[in-house]
Amino acid sequence: RSHEELSSSIRSTGSSPSLVSYYSWWGGVQMGPPDPILGVTEAFKRDTNPKKMNLGVGAYRDDHGKPFVLSCVRKAEELITAKHMDKEYLPIGGLGDFSKCCAQLALGADSEVLKSSRNITVQTISGTGSLRIGANFLARFHGGPRDVYLPKPSWGNHTPIFRDAGMQLKAYRYYDPSTCGFDFKGALDDISKIPEQSVIMLHACAHNPTGVDPKPEQWKEISDLVKKRNLLVFFDMAYQGFASGDIDRDAWAVRYFIEQGHNILLSQSFAKNMGLYGERVGGFTVVCNDTEEAKRVESQLKILIRPIYSNPPMNGARIAATILNTPDLRSLWLEEVHFMANRIIKMREQLVAGLKKEGSSHNWQHVIDQIGMFCFTGLKPEQVERLTKEFSVYMTKDGRISMAGVTSANVGYLAHGIHAVTK
Amino acid sequence: MSVFGDVPLAPPVAVFKLSADFREDGHPQKVNLGVGAYRTDDCQPWVLPVVKKVERLIVEDAGLNHEYLPILGLPEFRSASSKVALGDGSAAIKDGRVGGVQALGGTGALRIGAEFLRRWYNGVNNTATPVYVSAPTWENHNSVFADAGFKDIRPYHYWDAAKRGLDLAGLLDDLEKAPEHSVFVLHACAHNPTGTDPTREEWKQISEIMKRRSLFVFFDSAYQGFASGDLDKDAWAIRYFVSEGFELFIAQSFSKNFGLYNERVGYLTVVARDSENLSRTLSQMEKIVRTTWSNPPSQGARIVSKTLNCPELFAEWKSNVKTMADRVLLMRDQLKAKLQALGTPGTWDHITQQIGMFSFTGLNPKQVEYMIAEKHVYLMASGRINMCGLTTSNIDYIAQSIHDAVTKVPQCRS
What else is known (chain A) (predicted)? Predict the structure, then answer.
């Protein structure tokens, strides 16, 4: 029965607890579908096959398939514990020490933007929180079109984040399924048609889900075209250090665009490169014309943030800031990031070698050419379904696998499974 | 030309600006009675002893890592939070119709609840549903519901400035006149900023009207334990409404009662008609969380969860909470006594009748200005003071300052 029928029935018969119990405010609430990415882990957990593999979520695993807590993180935690700090609220924009070194990490210590203080960088709830603040800011203050152009494909959560913030989504060609590589021509063609002042989202490095990144010469052309079209650039950098193993190399595109005069928006995450997933450490930066503009933008970001969560959590930001600002820990971190990235690269090589050994006739070069945590295998949905059903290998329907879930112990099994569903 | 050329400079959030001004002030006797954070008698922040203990356990536990929590949060934290609010013996919990979402502080819990209500309550995406907040209320309530999309946010009568107490008649009248299905944000205890709570009899009257008129109950519970020193006593209103059969939301904060301000530990308790309605509701809240922060921070939830789920630690926590509540009660007694001893004009019973961290002194904006400019005693323009800012060292100075403000600066005529 509808609310209205029952309400009027209660009114006419007088208040009655037993009638009230028949209906709920939430009778009309539909069951939400499981999250496409996080839902994979849920399904994986339910599987009892001892050989099962979780190649869904992009969380790094060591060669034993275990979560990896970086030594620099443990050391930073010890330093922090010894300081006996209080737990007073952070400012709305977060821990100042953190925001500063977060911006430095992305932009480079010698960045002209930092020297002129024409950026505003706030601490955010990891990458998601950063993107959402950015999306909310655009919805409220961007005078241009409501459209945000995402690469096709993009991280699944980009679309609902921008949508919930009140923006609309469009796409530009990016991934070429025939080559499992970058559709450079298609991208330029589409970008050249984007209406002026629209927002264009770019993955800074280690594109998610494809692992396909533009080469530097291609980035240069993209930058020129974007400038010509007068588009507002929003970089998502969730894997700095994780892609090539080198933090400066991975930030090259971001820094190049800034040098070329783009006043970008930038989201950063420390979930992967510092293994601080559950601590929710991230940053949001707006590069402005000057300090005065940065101050105005900052004041509005605070107004946006306060009614969402008031101020951000301390723990992870304190760890990250300690690592970045303590020379020994920073060096250790760089080594560990390099180590993680290298393990991924090795697994890519071993997977391809394994597929060759299985006798696969397909070209798997893209597995090695792609970069970062993810590999867009090229598997079709039916093949993915078989891989999951028959081999208990869990991945997202788009054929994306997280290389971080691959180990020397299971790479052979994975090669076997992939070969079985593709031969 | 900049895309942000037209972005206006926003005014600072008042309570934080107050703290900033306080920090800049060089006066030796300055006092900050602004932000709602507990202070010891030495005017220092206090990390609860039980929190220190549990943090050490966490850091030393090599088996713990920093992996993502589930979207809705740490399971042990979630169940413990519901229990703290509704009580161990809660029939609703036993019936499987209580669940919730770990959120970033009380603010985060309010926001998730508000977003959900805007999308799914009283129709689909009904931004016109009136949302009522008390007059006055925590200033962020307005922004939370407005940014969640609600277009019609209204005050309900609450504080009676003339009698310095609850305007019950006005409140009940607003409940009778509110459109059906309106959302009402109720402070579970220790009303912020007035410190004035309905009595149990008054809560019963409020409940009767809300049930009869199908109004939605959204509790904000930021001070459980902190108000009276007793968790169960402070949760009486919440538990009464649940026993009366309401489906409701409770935004809980562990910032104050655990002193975990900067770890952003909060929880939105959802009480639904039955488990089936509950699970659909939670599935939609997951979607909201996923585009807001994906999954919540783990540190604070681990601390609270370990504490609430271990009998010895739970007992130690209750005792820490009582320490804080008792110090506040002591300062209330002493401030009232000193004002009476000074012969400060007016009645000061409200200082001890009000409950929790805050007191609505009754000082008008001009008197507040005087307090700040002349006495370097910082308080909100509303006349709200944080009792935790009072110590045995500064209470005489504060009492004298209030006395001077009242005698030297005239009462405004409204």
Answer: In eukaryotes there are cytoplasmic, mitochondrial and chloroplastic isozymes.
Q: Work out the angle at residue A71's Cα, subtended by the Cα atoms of residues A65 and A72, and round it to the nearest 5 degrees.
A: 130
CA A285 to chain centre: 15
Helix, strand, or coil here: B360? Answer: strand
Evaluate the omega torsion of the peptide bond into residue A153 and state whether it is cis, within 30 degrees of 0: yes
Strand order in the sheet with A147-152: A119-125, A281-287, A265-269, A232-237, A199-203, A147-152, A168-173
Q: Please give the interface size between A and B, counted as residue pairs whose CB atoms are below 8 Å apart.
A: 247
Residues 35-64 of A with CB under 8 A from B: 35, 38, 57, 59
| Tens digits of residue pLDDT in B57-72 | 998 898 999 999 999 9
Say if residue A23's pLDDT is above 80.
Answer: no
Is residue B219 within 8 A of residue B248, CB to CB? The reply is: yes
In B, which residues are within 8 Å of A125 by CB distance? Answer: 104, 292-294, 297
| Pairwise CB contact (< 8 Å): B3 & A57 | no
Which neighbouring-strand residues pair with B220? B187, B251
Handedness of CA B203, B206, B208, B214 (dihedral sign): negative
Task: Name the pairing type of β-strands A232-237 and A265-269.
Answer: parallel
Instruction: Please check the confidence at residue B39 and state whether its pLDDT lies above 70.
Output: yes
> Looking at the predicted structure, is the pLDDT value of residue B287 above 70?
yes
Integer Cα distance of A90 and A102 in angstroms: 16
Dist CA A337 CA A334 (whole Å):
5
Whole-number Å distance between alpha carbons of B249 and B131: 14
Q: Exposed e or buried b for every residue in A46-66, given b needs 16+ CB within 10 A?
A: eeeeeebbbbbbbbbbeeeee
Q: Is B204 a catalytic residue?
A: no
**CA torsion through residues A117, A119, A120, A126, sign:** negative
Helix (H, G, I), strand (E, B) or coil at A314: helix
* Tokens read off for A239: 């894997």
Other CB atoms within 10 A of residue A21 CB: 11
Q: Which parts of A241-380 fold into alpha helices (H)? A: 247-250, 252-259, 291-309, 314-325, 327-358, 365-369
Q: What is the pTM of this model?
A: 0.94
Give the pLDDT score at B10. Answer: 81
